[in-house]
Amino acid sequence: MLTEQTSVNQIDAFIESFDPSQNALFAAGENCFVTRKTLLRLKTDISNHRELVENITSAINDTDQQDAVAFGVLPFCKSQQAQFIVTDQINKYDKATFTHRLKLRSQLTKNKQANLNKVSHRQDQAHYESAILKAKRYFSERKLDKIVLAKQTDLFFDQDINQTHVIANLLSQSSSGFHFSFPTEQGKTLVGVSPELLLKKQDHSIISNPLAGSTKRVEDLEIEYKRKQALLASQKDRYEHAVVLDEMSQVLNPWCQQLTIPSTPSLLSTATMWHLSTIIEGQLINPNTHILSLANQLHPTPALCGKPTPSAYPLIKELEGEDRDYFSGIIGWCDRHGNGEWVVVIRCGELDTNHARLFAGAGIVAASDPTAEWLETEAKMSTMLNALEAAERYRELTETNALELEIA
Ligand SMILES: C=C(O[C@H]1C=CC=C(C(=O)O)[C@@H]1O)C(=O)O
Asked: How many Å lie between the centroid of ligand 1 and the Cα of residue 59?
């Protein structure tokens, strides 16, 4: 399917021409895939799983290229359209080497890094916490068990953001996770490093790694140890996590001859967070089942939406006050055999000239504390703030805002 691993010189030569507004990137495990050239771009509805699979399969088949692959991003909302890039021009690199060479290159060419000038929360702390209190009414009326509430934050810089540099930072911040960069048709670049594998499929085998239940990482090892133990023991977080597994097993079971879901979660870390994590493994009844069909049926899981899904979906739009678009959607690739790998679009942002819009959410259940959940979204946003080299300035600007609010 893909070009064989290449030498450092070849990587450097490619990096010279790497342009995030043209090349899509998806890095998982030890591999980093980068598209060289687009054969076709297409947009397609996602409300019907069969239609989605048919559209993508025929787009791949129409290329007449055996190795063609579709890279895509599906929005959170099923009434919006997915975007795909179909290509057989993909380079496969060793992730560690690509990261190292991209970082070196971006350090050499880096002019003065853009400075963060202004922060504007599209949902500020007061909005976010009041949305949680409103959701709690639905919990007490037993209309809802869980809802994931998110915020979007606009950052404005004094000059254009160096997108290659942000991607290099994301890659070097953590070797684990799923790094992605996708040039959208809106002329923006969706970038991030997701810790959450929605689904990977190869012939009969499927694997998924849902996450739900979180705590922030700290430098002090003793405190960190206590936080990890508290997360594992937390009834609230275990419930948040169990809701996700329940829903996923209901979707996957009918498709599988075998499905293994461990009875207790383990812990998974990112550069900034700890999460409750479960690895689900299965064997499909039919190896021709298309990954997009399954991924789109799972999406959005209660790790991004809620339970019951039909109640949580419209309430999210009402409480957040705007569409999430591609944030908390899914991103990945598939080939002509219906194999591929899809992850959820979190720990991410959309870059556009001197502006970045960041996204972060948290699972809310009856036992949630509004301020703790807000702080969790702040901690999750630090992945992108660090990649933008704007974490300190963000704190200065938002602390000043908070102070101004207090004085007023
Ligand atoms: C919605 C996000 O995280 C989800 C994934 C892992 C843990 C989560 C949590 O503990 O709330 C969220 O469900 C996000 O990072 O924006």
From this structure: 33
Distance of CA 59 to the CA centre of its chain: 25
For 181, the domain range is: 8-407
Residue 318 annotated among the catalytic residues of the structure? no
Active-site residue flag, 196: yes
Vertex 148 angle, CA 47 and 362, to 5°: 135
- State the pTM of this model: 0.95
ipTM of the complex model: 0.98
262 within a domain of the structure (yes/no): yes
- pLDDT tens profile 147-191: 999 999 999 999 999 999 999 999 999 999 999 999 999 899 999
Residue nearest to atom 8 of ligand 1 (CA): 212
Q: Which residue has the least CA distance to atom 4 on ligand 1?
A: 303
Does some domain include residue 2? no
Residue 331: both structure tokens together? 């991103």
Kindly report the CATH number assigned to the domain that includes residue 372.
3.60.120.10
39 lines ligand 1 (CB under 6 A): no
HSE value, Cβ hemisphere, 13 Å, CA-based, for 219: 0
Give the count of domains, the chain: 1
